[in-house]
Amino acid sequence: MNTVTHLIAGRPWAGTAARTGEVFNPATGAVSGRVDLASAELVGDVVATARKAWSGWADASLAKRTQVLFAFRELLNARKDEIAALITAEHGKVLDDARGEVMRGLEVAEFACGIPHLLKGGFTENASTNVDVYSIRQPLGVVAVIAPFNFPAMVPLWFVPVAIACGNAVVLKPSEKDPSAAVAVAKLWTEAGLPDGVMNVVHGDKEAVDALLTHPDVKAVSFVGSTPIAKYVYETGTAHGKRVQALGGAKNHMLVLPDADLDLAADAAINAGFGSAGERCMAISALVVVDTVADDLVKRIEDRIGRLRTGDGTRGCDMGPLVTRAHRDRVAGYLDAGVAEGATLAVDGRTGEFDGAADGFWLGPTLFDHVTPEMSVYRDEIFGPVLSVVRVGSYDEGLDLINANPYGNGTAIFTNDGGAARRFQREVEVGMVGVNVPIPVPVSYYSFGGWKNSLFGDSHAHGTEGVHFFTRGKVVTSRWLDPSHGGLNLGFPQNT
Ligand code: NAD
């Protein structure tokens, strides 16, 4: 039995935890390990370790920081298969998908390698006679990163390389459901030459999160998870004087217009609806189709679902199990609810064969048709392999539906009409928009983040917004005195 413990100043914690949690292999249903859950006191000790290491790291030159980042990038690339295997073993997603998440995280490390350029300030010579003005950005101190289960490597990597590159020290709290990948990635920082204590991992649940949110030496919190917890984290963290970005849940719509290529739209709906068993914050869960092409599109999707193989992520299947039995049962509960509320269950994911152990947390791809906005399968974030077709009469009806939704993470339009696509990207109230791209996750040098209930706070993740989040600005007004500057003048300084 594997024990997953905290990583403090580059070393595994040597203590004995009063509380531990179970870690499962979702493809077998068996408990594969136990994770130590930190007490508030231990979190305090880790923050103190990070605070001590921080001053040295904040003073490290950009040349030194960049060397560490490049080395980290190389190590992460070299170990991607190892990390992907850890993700599949605890999360369940198929290996290719796990590798893909590591690579998208690696892109953020590559972005952070350019930190000297990103931290360049402005300089104005002679703003007033012989007075120069310039701006600099400085690190915050200790920052906390709190991550969800669904991207155990990528989500921490959205924040950690940027935070470290900006000169901060980090305490990462991964999801207790699949904690091993985060530890494996964190160890690479030590190998890359990062001083001990700048990067730390504590495992835990609400107790650890609350300790981070209220600790006076934690200056900023980057959170990703479900909407109710994101809201709680934002409110608690900001009430304790911290800068907080809290990314929440989603209900992503894909709007298909009658002129779209229906084969491409069907492929995209399948990939974005069932990839990672729908456990993606950018998964498509509502397929909004103009009704003249709805029957045709539904038929093409049904055909494709028939060709998908669900099973153990190490066996070359298309889709893996859900993360826990409780989550699997919760998602399966929506199948009954959808039928009871009047939706047509076109494909039932509970039936069929699964290529894996009998006790795995299996649920196959599920398709609902004739879903309406008041049904729970439409309203709730299901976070499983359930795609709901909502039929609309026109582009306008589809747009109104999307804009009325309380979430605003990602959305996509499928059309060959450039004018319609351009209208959509202007009019839709969602943070990340795809035009014939079903999962429009921005590249690392843009920023990732939704609108409305999908993000609490002002800053999106990575890109220049990430650099701003992990630094604070200072403006210096400077004059090198010579004797001509003498004399008393108590008036408000004016630019001359
Ligand atoms: P979750 O909210 O249950 O957990 C997220 C983190 O919060 C974990 O580290 C967990 O330990 C901690 N936590 C859980 N309950 C808590 C509580 N009561 N008090 C304090 N901390 C608590 O989310 P999850 O199930 O791990 O992840 C899935 C959710 O994350 C989905 O809603 C998904 O949409 C969302 N998500 C959003 C994005 C995004 O970018 N917007 C990305 C990935 C996942």
Walk me through this protein's architecture.
This protein is α/β, with parallel strands linked by helices. It has two domains: 2-247, Aldehyde Dehydrogenase, Chain A, domain 1; 252-440 and 475-485, Aldehyde Dehydrogenase, Chain A, domain 2, CATH 3.40.309. It is built from 16 helices and 23 strands. It has helices at residues 40-59, 62-78, 80-91, 95-112, 115-118, 154-165, 180-191, 206-214, 227-239, 262-274, 294-305, 325-340, 376-379, 395-404, 418-427, 463-469, and strands at 2-4, 7-8, 11-12, 19-25, 30-37, 123-128, 131-139, 142-146, 169-173, 199-201, 218-224, 243-247, 252-256, 284-290, 344-347, 366-369, 386-392, 407-408, 410-414, 432-435, 451-452, 455-456, 471-479. It has a seven-stranded mixed beta sheet with strand order 15-16-17-14-13-19-20, with helices on both faces. The protein has a six-stranded mixed beta sheet with strand order 10-9-8-11-12-22, with helices on both faces. A three-stranded mixed beta sheet has the order 1-5-4, with helices on one face. β6 and β7 form a beta hairpin. α10 (262-274) crosses α11 (294-305). The mean pLDDT is 97. The structure holds nicotinamide-adenine-dinucleotide. Residues 146-151, 155, 173, 175-176, 205-206, 209, 224-226, 229, 247-250, 281, 381, 383, 409, 450, 454 line the site of nicotinamide-adenine-dinucleotide. Its EC number is 1.2.1.27. Residues 15-476 form the Aldehyde dehydrogenase domain.
In short:
This protein has 496 residues and is α/β, with parallel strands linked by helices. The chain is 38% helix and 23% strand.
